[in-house]
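Re: folding output
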Amino acid sequence: MANTAQLRKLIAEILETADLNSITAKKVRQELETKLDEDLSEKKKEIDNLVLEILEDKQNGAGDDKGSKRKTKDESESEEEDTPKKKRGKKASDDDDDSEEEPKKKKKPAAKGKGGYVKKCRLSPELAKVMGEENMARHEVVKKMWGIIKEKQLYDPKNKQFAICNADLLAVFGVKRFRTFGMMKYLKTHFLD
């Protein structure tokens, strides 16, 4: 196992060539494990602290007194302990810089209008008559249904959470009165593909 002096020297070498805007403590640990060909998970906290110290030395110059380093080290440890509460599902040692990489993976644009809730579906004849179109996306149907209820003032006067069906809506919903927030329960059978 490498001692602290060896680790400090290797970390300094890694940070010399690394892009300080994108490097993280996790990446430094992984590179150390590759160079030393050993598992450093037991020294994770020590390595993280060494990385912080070396970065602070680089920013502030080597003239800082050890007391201020110790204080920042203690502060960084307390921040690491608080981190899991703030970042759900992330390890305390992961730096904020890691979050810059993850959205790049997740930001692949979904094909719009191809699937799920935005997919255009063929409507049943009853629903198509009310909507005025034979193919619509589910969200468009719900939005238009809200518009119809509001425009024709079909809200139940006793309880505005409910709508009272007129002749056209009765053919679609099959009940005289339905809860407006639960309308998809009735509409789902009218989406044919």
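--- second protein (sequence, then structure) ---
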Amino acid sequence: MPQLNPSPWFFTMLTTWLTFLLLIQPKLLSFTSTNSPINKSLKHTKIPSWTWPWT
């Protein structure tokens, strides 16, 4: 069964991962995010409960 033979696909998988790790990933990580994270307010507001008409 040719599906179980890893020989033709292992080199392709290995090449793809090495390309990603060595070429693509450093380029993607070099980009800086345009929106810096903002500290969220720690103030919690109480949400009023819903008044159900049948209760």
